[in-house]
Amino acid sequence: MKRYLQGIALPVFCLLLITVGCERKVEGQQKEGEVTKAVAQLQPTKGNQASGTVTFESRDGGIRVTADLTGLEPGRHGFHIHEFGDCSAPDASSAGDHYNPTGTPHGAPTDPPEKRHVGDLGNLEADAEGKAHLEMVDPVIALDGENSIVGKAVVIHAQPDDLTSQPAGNAGPRVACGVIEPAQ
To answer: What digits encode the pLDDT tens for the residues 96-130?
Structure first.
């Protein structure tokens, strides 16, 4: 019996080591199924010309957001994540309200998480040619798990977000919309 147990112990121990080794995440390597980058291709709503790309990438301290748009009126425009990944309505109303899984009030992206929607990204500014570029790191949004924005919509509004009006910042009509999808 003792010899039988010794014969089984070594293979079981080796199998256990292999299993534990496979579960350990190597530094800089993503887990299977983990999203580390996502992209939204924004298209204009009816009667507008705004379009562009918004990229989301996991970084230390949050998600790096990079937005590049054209076809905007010069000035500031509300920039939000909305609750549904549906831009099919001519006015993008199918994207729903701001993404707010925690039921918090509307606020600025610099506000603490308990004082802003997950989808509150503030404003981006278009130059005289209608081009806008924005780079920021947001500590509240996520690409997987709780507060994941994957499958939601990015919406650009006609006016600036005042960052205080409830429930959505009084940013006016939606001029562009795009669904956030995992990047390949």
So the answer is: 998 989 888 888 888 888 888 888 898 999 999 99
Which two tokens mark 130? 């209608």
Token duo for residue 20: 């534990």
Return the number of other C-beta atoms located less than 10 Å from residue 18's C-beta: 10
State the catalytic residues: 80, 82, 98, 106, 117, 120, 157, 174
Q: What's the pTM value of the predicted model, to 2 decimals?
A: 0.79
**Phi, psi angle pair for 91, to nearest 5°:** -105, 10
Three-state DSSP state, 179: strand
Q: What whole-number distance in Å separates Cα of residue 165 and Cα of residue 169? A: 4
Residue in 156, 182, 146 with CA at minimum distance from that of residue 87: 156
Nearest-angstrom CA–CA distance, 89 and 98:
16
